[in-house]
Design brief:
The chain folds into two domains: about 110 residues; about 70 residues, Alpha-Beta Plaits (2-Layer Sandwich), CATH 3.30.70. Helix 3 packs antiparallel against helix 4. The chain has a four-stranded antiparallel sheet. It is α+β, with helices and mostly antiparallel strands. It is found in: Cell inner membrane.
């Protein structure tokens, strides 16, 4: 019985660690779905802990599987006849393992939740096209990039947006007769990430 509780606790620890590992990437998608952008970067402070949380999740879930699969001792034989509780089943461990794997991989596949809102812009005068590089504070993953791109593409006159969390910037090409640098900065700031300076 002690082994089963240890397995359950390890599985829950692994699940919690896996969710926490992606907690910086999940709010932008929830913010998009809920229509509230300002809270998107609320958990971005957790991003530096991501590798450790992934490691903790892998160790905890690995231990849960080990505790579940290890051979039973001879004195545990009388407990075999009892029907296991739902959290003591192989299905429970498979479910926890799959959910943890999905949580950990979420930052790499979060772009599927963002609808393509890029518009075709007809350029009347090429001299009206301007490219501005915004330094953006708070982006930590691909999900953050998609959130910024989505918010900027909501504006009229946007030709192209390229956001990079690694470079901490967003490069925006736009028609300055239809939108302005200030409007773009407001759109980026509305996501919860902040423009720190313009180049």
């Amino acid at each position: 019985m002690k082994t089963e509780n240890t397995s359950k606790n390890a599985a829950y620890t692994g699940l919690f660690a896996a969710i926490a590992a992606s907690s910086c990437c999940i709010p932008p998608v929830i913010a998009l779905i809920a229509g509230v952008g300002g809270s998107a970067s609320a958990l971005s402070w957790m991003e530096p802990f991501r590798p450790y949380l992934i490691g903790l999740a892998a160790i905890a879930i690995g231990y849960a599987w080990y505790a579940y699969l290890k051979p039973k001792k001879a004195d545990d034989c009388c407990e075999v006849d009892a029907k296991p509780k739902w959290y003591q089943t192989k299905g429970f461990l498979i479910g926890i393992t799959l959910f943890a794997a999905i949580s950990i991989s979420f930052p790499y596949c979060s772009h599927i939740f963002y609808p393509d809102n890029k518009k075709e812009v007809i350029v009347v005068n090429q001299s009206d096209i301007q490219t501005v590089n915004f330094d953006v504070k708070g982006m930590t993953c691909a999900s953050c990039e998609e959130h910024v791109k989505h918010a900027v593409n909501e504006l009229e006159g946007i030709v192209n947006v390229a956001a990079s969390y690694e470079k901490a910037n967003a490069e925006v090409e736009f028609d300055n007769t239809k939108t302005s640098k200030e409007d773009i900065e407001k759109a980026i700031n509305s996501t919860g990430y902040k423009v720190v300076k313009q180049k």
